[in-house]
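thought: fold this chain, then report.
action: predict
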Amino acid sequence: MQKKIKFILSLAVISAAVIGGGLWKIRQLAESPLLISQQTIYTLPAGTGRLGLEQQLQQQHIMRDSVWFSWLLKAEPQLASFKAGTYRLEPGMTVRGLLELLASGKEAQFPVRFIDGQRLSEWLNVLRNAPYLRHELTDDQLSSVAAALKLPEKDPEGWFYPDTYLYTAHMSDVSLLTRAHQRMVKLVDQVWEGRATDLPYKDKNQLLTMASIIEKETALSDEREKIASVFVNRLRLGMKLQTDPTVIYGMGDLYRGTLTRKDLETPTAYNTYVIPALPPGPIAIPGKASLLAAAHPVTSNYLYFVANGSGGHTFSSTLAAHNRAVQAWRTLQDKAPDSRQAREVQEKKTTNEK
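observation:
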């Protein structure tokens, strides 16, 4: 009887030692760091089981081979509830941390930045190069964007809010553009409702068009309302806006970096040296500050502005004062290298002023 008791005790001790050793091995694996030395994007396909996960992690050199991995998932079943997706793994992350991340379903988010002042075509190029994004747009035509987003306008230029957007893997380009469009529509609605009275805009599209021109004309926050006042005053007097960015937009791919007299005189739907009104739509994607400036221009008599040589502009109410400002700018340009082309364009613009 005594021998039997000793045998049972010995067996219990051995079993406890084996179990304890196994648990130590499992804990050691769980707390061991992954093999990665830099941030790694890992995708767990849908339908992957425990064995498939283990094989993937080993084949991609994320985790070392261990007979204890399956035991870890059995010992801590909450770690086995992993979800398919694309995840961002960081250096120093442990096996437990990896499994907790996969169980949380918190997929990696990727940023895409849409910059104010750019055209929608430039945004589409950014989307084309965005990693892990699913592309539903078959081409970069603005009409295709309008159709994909089910917009009434065939040309949706300008109707997207510039910001940094986050997306997860396999989200579509259309869904990102939809978010940006919805935000811009909401902002334009708010600005339109709070706009100053007696502005020469027929609808929200004209407000947005003016904002896009302001966006292209200046990056200085304290100038936007003055720029707006110049163009609003001109519209009220029936004067042509005569703004270069509209000419450039109307030229499309024909623009090569400089404007000539022929460019200023060649009619397009957007050439405000030719048309006596706002162009038919935005020429870029404006930011909120430019929208507010278009809705709340300062009260002024300004009809002209020209670069002042220090990043801003000189504003004038008469052509004589404007010509003096142009002469001052020209003098500065004469002192700068490679100034002849810029001066010639400004001379052509001044000649066209009425």
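thought: worth noting. The two ends are 120 Å apart (CA to CA).
final: tokens above.
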